[in-house]
Design brief:
alpha/beta, 2-enoyl-CoA Hydratase, Chain A, domain 1, 7-stranded mixed β-sheet, 4-stranded mixed β-sheet, 11 helices, binds ligand LRBWVUCK, transit peptide, lipid metabolism
Amino acid sequence: MLRSQTKLMDLGRRLCRSIGNNNGSNLTMVEVDDKTGIATLTLNKPPVNSCNLELLLDLNESIKQIERNGSRGLILTSSNDKVFSSGLDLNELHQPNQDRLIAFWRALQDMWLSLFLSRVPTAAAINGHAIAVGCVLATACEYRVMLPGFSIGIHATKFGYVVPPFILISYLSVLPRYIAERALLQGKLFSIDEALHVNLIDEVADGKSDAIIKCAKFIGSFAKTQPDARALTKRQTRAQDVQLLIKDPEGQLRESLEYINTPFFQQGLEVYLAKLKSKSKE
Ligand SMILES: CCCC/C=C\CC(=O)SCCNC(=O)CCNC(=O)[C@H](O)C(C)(C)COP(=O)(O)OP(=O)(O)OC[C@H]1O[C@@H](n2cnc3c(N)ncnc32)[C@H](O)[C@@H]1OP(=O)(O)O
């Protein structure tokens, strides 16, 4: 075999190493770049990465796995080239089985805390629409790079949802208060130019690999910091944002469950789901 061929094969081998998250599911995939030590965490629940119980549990496990295996950073992206994430799986909220709803909402709270407080540098390569909790996943990260042609935001008020405090906090941790408030009240989905203008995203990329490279460059900017000092400083900076959820997770859970179970919420959701389904049949 030619030396150049061997070199290329070595390069291919070193590029990425898949690591499992111990539950054997493919709802998320983790690959660690052997050279940079950065893990790419890919959402992989067709068709639109809507977050159901299983995806949330899987995602949380993958985030923890990435921290345990000593990765230098985490890049969150999607295997779908049009949708980063369509947010919560609305079927989990519609006429829910109460035990499953409790497990679902707990998994959502836990996953958000894990990502928001992750000790490693985090960045989102947003290669598709990031809607509602899809946007929350991106804003929980420290840096956002997005591809043109897609929308990002929390449009809950448009379809009659009041979002829980930790979702508001996620927006407020990135946007100035008056912009976050106006966008939430309008139920605004931002185009890429609008998102860049208000710093909801940090950079625009011209493709997924460019987005990953830009995220890796951001993560590389911490190379000269001491990881424990960085992690503790991040935790302190974000401490106030997570106070409510850490102090009283069960109270927060109860409040959300009460709201989800109201006839008002259920009726609105029924109409919205029917619209979504009829749109997808067009
Ligand atoms: C107290 C609780 C408050 C919580 C408030 C907010 C939190 C949330 O995250 S709620 C979720 C909000 N998300 C949405 O409203 C997104 C809705 N989806 C879309 O706008 C589009 O699907 C999207 C732009 C993401 C992608 O468009 P397309 O590529 O054209 O796909 P389709 O629309 O054809 O969808 C394919 C398939 O998926 C179903 N779908 C889409 N999103 C969801 C979802 N969030 N939950 C459940 N199912 C979803 C859609 O109905 C289609 O299904 P089929 O008809 O069976 O093919």
